[in-house]
Amino acid sequence: MWKQFLNKLPRKSSKSDSVSTSSGCADNAGAQRTNSLNDVSNRSTAAVKRMSSAVFPSNVVSGIEPFLSFKDVPNQERQNLYISKLNLCSVVFDFGDSSSNCVEKDLKKQSLLELVEFVSMVTSKFNEPAINASCKMFSANLFRAFPPNCHSSSSGGENDDDEPMFDPSWSHLQIVYELLLKFLSSSFLDVKVAKKYFDHAFILRLLNLFDSEDPRERDCLKTILHRIYGKFMVHRPFIRKSVSNIFYRFIFETEKHNGVAELLEVFGSVISGFALPLKEEHKMFLWRVLIPLHKPKSVGVYLQQLTYCVTQFIEKEPKLVSTVIRGLLRCWPVTNSQKEVMFLSELEEILEATNMVDFQKIMIPMFRRISCCINNSHFQVAERALFLWNNDHIVSLIAPNRDVILPIVFPALESNIKNHWNQAVLNVTLNVRKIFSEMDEELFSSCQKKYKEEEEQRATTEDKRRTIWIQLESAASLQPMSGNTPVLVGSAAAPMTC
């Protein structure tokens, strides 16, 4: 269709065509918009006027030539020209082949830039045909199937250093996204009319684009989704439900999605706007979505955004802290040291927003887990757990409850001093031990005495067990073997070779 248009356009010479083609295929990110707008402004007005409307099929334009400039038509005809250009820009090209349709791609880019400029400077409300044509153009250009993922965030951070995949059509997609954002942001967009076209089907297909491997596209999408959520209040419940479904599929089925971090970033600002008291629906989102999002191996990719969403809930309703920490303890990655360090960092952020009453509800199970982390043979886990005592707010929560917390963590501290291999961990352990000693010397001495008694009792129990085994081995060696009598092989027995 584009070739039919171009064959009938007036041409100056083959030399000018070759120049136009080469400039159309060149990608200069820094001067892209300026050069394109200059190309449009430098077109000969006489050449544009010589275009006949008979060149363009009726299904492409609405009674007006699409290559006319907006300044060349009266104000009452500009929305018709806007629709005409939108229909022209609905034609999609294959950007995987950089040598095909270069002139057509260049003309489409120039038309898109003109549309962006028009929407930025419009002075009257968009009529319903213009809104309909805009949605059709956005759908034609943006909604597409992605190729199979070469690498995904499902790898648990192993592929974090991989180069991102960039869409070859981004030079055009970027302008379409900018047009969509300016269109949604326009004060001349009638929300009551627009909600019929920016409907559930449109929103659902827009959400599917968050799985794009191009980080530039995902960055544009999060801004647009936030604008749609703010503009169309009637669609807010549907957006929340649809995003929850994306998370459910990611958590419980695929563990593959490229846009989890961006979706959480959008929801971070949404959660901050929730009214108090929180609705049950919003609490269910915390329990059923945000807490289980800690389970996937790739949590490190989006942990920062996830932590922000969780802390927003706690700031809104502090009593939720016990629910959040118990959820974290259920998801605790006991066999993944890298995730364990991340969990300890998140735990510190949550505790910074915790008050004394809520802290007392969960301190016993929480410090049992922290004690295990202190004794972890991986030095980063042990060191990160001990760094919690560098936080003044956490120490202020621990101090009034030291009679409960110190007996839990004291054995772990003493075990580290005796057995841990890493010198940095030993130094931090001694600092924490000193903090408790200065906090309550009497309690510290009591815990130390109890620990020594338990160690002596444990040593006595071990000696008894070892003595019993020696006696059993000795008795078994003197017992004559007959029939199917089992034989207890002692340490002095000859080794078995395979």
UniProtKB/TrEMBL annotation:
Coiled coil: none annotated. One of its GO terms (cellular component) is cytoplasm. The keyword Cytoplasm applies. Keywords: Cytoplasm. One of its GO terms (biological process) is meiotic sister chromatid cohesion. Residues 1-38 are annotated as: Disordered. It is found in: Cytoplasm. The B regulatory subunit might modulate substrate selectivity and catalytic activity, and also might direct the localization of the catalytic enzyme to a particular subcellular compartment. This is Serine/threonine protein phosphatase 2A regulatory subunit.
